[in-house]
Write a structure and sequence with these properties.
Helix 17 packs antiparallel against helix 18. A hairpin with a 2-residue loop joins strand 1 and strand 2. The longest helix has about 35 residues. By secondary structure, this protein is mainly alpha-helical. The radius of gyration is 44 Å and the shape is rod-shaped. The chain starts with a helix and ends in a 9-residue tail after the last helix. A two-stranded antiparallel sheet has the order 1-2. The protein is built from 23 helices and two strands.
C-alpha cells in the first residue's frame, strides 16, 4: 500500500506540473513540495531511503521500483523529453534521485544485502544515460530551429543554415565571438551534462557534444572554399592552383584560430560548467577542434614536404609566416593536456616549413649552376637568368625578417653550415656573375662581351638600389659594383672606338690623311651598322654610352677635318677634298647606336 501511495502521490504531482506547464518554475516548486511527503503522508525530511532508517534494503527496493516506473515512462516515449520543459525538469529530478541512491549504495559496497539493489540501480542508470545522450543530441539539433524562430520574429531573414547546422556568415572583424547556441539551450545542455558526468558517462556526453560541433566547423570551413586536399592530391595539383589554395588557407586559418576556436572554447566552458572536473571540457574542446586543425595542418605539411622549385619560395614563406602567427594562439587555446599533441604537431610543421624554405632558397643556386652558356644572347641584352635571379632576390627580401630567422634557426637546429641571409645573397650573386662571365664568352666581338656584362651589371645594380635587397647587401657592395660597371663601360669604349678614333689622330702627308679618312669612313660605317643592332635596355645607360662615344669621336673628327683643310698640300689643287660626313652627320649616326630590345 505504501508503494501505491507513493506512486499516486507522484502521479498527482505530475498532473499538477503539467497543468502549470506554462510556468515551469512554479511546477518545479510544487513537485519539490509534493516529493517531500513520505508514503504515510508526513511532510519534511529526506525522502531518500537509507539503511539506518529502514534497517534493510527494503526501502531501497521500493524507491528503485518507484523510480523505475517513473523513469521508464519517459524512456519508452518516442517524443523527446526536452520537447516539454515540465517533463525535462521532472525527468532530471528523478535522475538526481537515482544517482543519489546509487551513490549511497556504492558507499555500502561491503554490505551483501544491497548488492542486488546496487545492480538494479546501475542498470537503470545505464538506461537513463543512454536516453540522456539522445536528449543531449536532440537539444543541440533543435538549436537552429530556435534561432530561426527568433530571427523570423525579429524580421531577420538572412540567417544562414544548412541541413540543421548553423554556419557562420562572412567575418571581417576578428574581435568577435560567435554565439552559436542560445543561453536557454546552453542551460539545457549543461543540466544534462552535469547528470551524465555524475552518472559516469562523461565520455559519452563529450562525444555527443563534439560530434555536432564538428559539423558546425566543417560546414563553416567549407564555406571558405577550402578544397580539403589530401597529401597525395597536394603533390599532384599544379602549383598555380596551390598558390590560390594557400591564399584561401591563410584566410581560413586566421578565421579559425581567431574566431571559431575561441568561440568554441567559450561555448565548451559554458556547456560543461559546474562540473567537478575540467577534463570533460578540455576533452570536448579537443574533439571539436581536432578534425579542422588536422585538416589545416596536413595541407601546410604537404606543402612543406613538396617540391623545392625556387618559384615556390614566396608562397611557402607566406605559409610559414601564417604558422608563425598561429603558434602563440595555439599555445593559448590548446594549453591543456588533450590538445598538447595538436600543438606539438603544429610546431613540427612550422619547423618543416622553415626547412623547406631553406631548401628552396638553396635550390636557386643549383638553378644558376644548371644554366650553362649555349648560344649568344641576341644583341648583348639582359639575360633572362639575370632578370629571374634579381627579381627573385628582390621579392625574397620583402620577407627579410622571416628569411633571416629561418636561415639562422634551421642551421642551429640541424647543425649545418648555414650562412646568414646577407652572405647567402652575396653568394648567389657571385654565382650569377660567374655564370654571366661564362655566357659572355659566347660572343666573338670583345666589345659586345663588355656591353653584355655592362647591361646585366647595370640591371643587377638597379635592382639592388633603394630597397630591402640593397639593405641586405650593404653600401660597400653597391659602391664596388658601381665601380665594376664603370670599368665595363671603359672597356667597351676602348675596344670599340680606340682603333676608329686612332685613324683620326694620325699625322702624315696629305695622301696619308685622305687614306685615313677613307678608312675611318669604312670602319665608322661598319661599327655604326653593327652596334645599331646591339641592345641597351636601360634608357639612361643608352644615352650615357652614346654621349661617351660622341665625346671622343666628334672632337677627333672635327680636328681631323680642320687639319685636312689646312694642309699645305691642298694649295694649288682643284677644290677641297671630298669629306663624307660633317661633324653633325657623325653625331647623328652615333645617336643611332643601340636599340631598346632585341625584338
Amino acid at each position: 500500500m505504501a508503494e501505491a501511495g507513493g506512486e499516486n502521490l507522484y502521479a498527482a504531482a505530475r498532473n499538477i506540473a503539467r497543468a502549470l506547464g506554462k510556468d515551469p518554475s512554479a511546477a518545479g516548486d510544487i513537485l519539490q513540495i509534493l516529493s517531500g511527503y513520505g508514503a504515510s503522508g508526513n511532510r519534511g525530511g529526506d525522502p531518500r531511503p537509507t539503511a539506518s532508517r529502514g534497517g534493510s534494503n527494503v526501502n531501497y527496493d521500493r524507491a528503485l521500483n518507484s523510480l523505475e516506473r517513473q523513469i521508464s515512462s519517459y524512456i519508452v516515449e518516442d517524443r523527446p523529453i526536452w520537447s516539454d520543459p515540465v517533463d525535462s525538469r521532472t525527468f532530471l529530478d528523478s535522475v538526481d534521485e537515482l544517482i543519489s541512491i546509487a551513490g549511497d549504495l556504492r558507499s555500502m559496497a561491503g554490505d551483501k544485502s544491497v548488492v542486488v539493489c546496487q545492480s538494479r540501480a546501475d542498470e537503470l542508470i545505464q538506461q537513463v544515460m543512454f536516453r540522456l545522450q539522445e536528449e543531449f543530441g536532440f537539444v543541440m539539433d533543435r538549436a537552429p530551429d530556435s534561432f530561426d524562430s527568433d530571427d523570423e520574429s525579429s524580421g531577420e531573414e538572412d540567417n544562414d543554415t544548412s541541413e540543421g547546422v548553423i554556419v557562420a556568415r562572412p567575418i571581417t572583424d576578428y574581435k568577435i565571438v560567435i554565439e552559436a547556441l542560445q543561453s536557454s539551450v546552453i542551460g539545457d545542455l549543461n543540466a544534462i551534462a552535469v547528470r551524465m558526468v555524475a552518472g559516469g558517462y562523461a565520455k559519452e556526453c563529450s562525444r555527443a557534444y563534439s560530434s555536432r560541433r564538428r559539423e558546425f566547423l566543417e560546414e563553416s570551413l567549407s564555406r571558405l572554399h577550402l578544397r580539403g586536399l589530401s597529401m597525395e592530391e597536394v603533390q599532384e595539383t599544379p602549383w598555380q592552383d596551390l598558390e590560390d589554395e594557400i591564399d584561401r588557407w591563410i584566410k581560413a586559418v586566421t578565421l579559425v584560430f581567431r574566431v571559431f576556436f575561441p568561440s568554441e572554447r567559450l561555448l565548451c566552458d559554458r556547456v560543461f560548467s559546474d562540473l567537478p572536473v575540467s577534463s570533460v571540457t578540455d576533452l570536448s574542446f579537443m574533439e571539436v577542434c581536432r578534425g579542422t586543425t588536422t585538416q589545416l595542418l596536413n595541407f601546410a605539411d604537404a606543402i612543406a614536404l613538396g617540391s623545392r622549385l625556387p618559384e615556390r619560395l614566396f608562397k611557402v614563406v607566406d605559409l610559414y609566416e601564417a604558422m608563425q602567427d598561429l603558434i602563440p594562439k595555439m599555445e593559448t587555446l590548446f594549453s591543456d593536456r588533450y590538445c598538447l599533441p595538436l600543438r606539438h604537431e603544429a610546431v613540427a610543421i612550422y619547423k618543416r616549413l622553415g626547412e623547406a624554405i631553406r631548401g628552396i632558397f638553396m635550390e636557386l643556386e643549383n638553378l644558376i649552376r644548371r644554366d650553362p652558356p649555349k648560344t649568344a644572347f641576341p644583341g648583348g641584352g639582359i639575360h633572362p637568368i639575370t632578370r629571374y635571379v634579381m627579381n627573385y632576390l628582390r621579392a625574397a627580401c620583402k620577407s627579410r625578417q622571416s628569411l633571416e630567422q629561418i636561415l639562422d634557426q634551421t642551421g642551429n637546429e640541424t647543425g649545418s653550415d648555414t650562412r646568414p641571409l646577407s652572405v647567402q645573397i652575396v653568394w648567389v650573386l657571385e654565382l650569377l656573375e660567374s655564370n654571366l662571365e661564362g655566357k659572355k664568352r659566347t660572343y666573338r666581338d670583345p666589345s659586345l662581351c663588355f656591353l653584355f656584362m655592362m647591361n646585366n651589371d647595370k640591371y643587377i645594380l638597379d635592382k639592388a638600389k633603394d630597397n630591402e635587397l640593397g639593405l641586405v647587401l650593404g653600401e660597400d657592395w653597391i659602391v664596388k659594383h658601381a665601380a665594376k660597371l664603370r670599368q665595363y663601360h671603359s672597356n667597351y669604349r676602348r675596344s670599340s672606338w680606340n682603333q676608329v678614333v686612332g685613324l683620326l689622330r694620325t699625322e702624315g702627308p696629305y695622301p696619308k690623311l685622305i687614306e685615313n679618312l677613307r678608312l675611318f669612313k669604312a670602319q665608322f660605317d661598319e661599327v655604326c651598322k653593327t652596334q645599331s643592332q646591339w641592345v641597351v635596355t636601360d634608357g639612361q645607360l643608352r644615352e650615357e654610352l652614346r654621349s661617351s662615344v660622341a665625346g671622343i669621336v666628334s672632337p677627333a673628327y672635327s680636328n681631323f677635318i680642320r687639319r685636312l683643310k689646312e694642309s699645305p698640300e691642298i694649295n694649288g689643287r682643284r677644290g677641297e677634298p671630298f669629306i663624307p660626313y660633317t661633324v653633325e652627320d657623325v653625331e647623328f649616326r652615333i645617336k643611332g647606336l643601340f636599340k631598346e630590345s632585341s625584338r
